[in-house]
Amino acid sequence: MIARIHIVHDALSNADYVESQTSESVVDGMSDDVVYTFASQLSDQGYGSFEQCLAVLTACNGDVNSAKVALSKVIFKQKKYISK
Question: CB-side exposure of 6: number of CA atoms within 13 Å?
Fold first, then answer.
């Protein structure tokens, strides 16, 4: 469990770094509007807060399916940890 949390933490840190280094777009080849729309849709679908979804989507370089997998693992681990 701790290893997966570290992976997600690293992904979020990477997303913050990428966002701070780019002035054009948070994901290469995608406009900010598209990325924010995808992040909003993921959040609306219950994958986490908008900020979490945006960070993971950015870390996954705009790959929505990879972001869903990563966010699902975080949600599962959080619920499993909370229910103990």
Answer: 3
Q: Which residue has the tokens 């997303």?
A: 15
Domains contained in the chain, number: 1
Kindly report, residue by residue over 8-58, the tens digit of the pLDDT.
556 666 555 444 444 455 677 788 899 999 999 999 999 999 999 999 999
Reduce the DSSP state of residue 47 to 3 states and report it: coil
Token pair, residue 59, equals 């870390």
Its domain, for residue 40, covers: 2-83
pLDDT of residue 30: 84
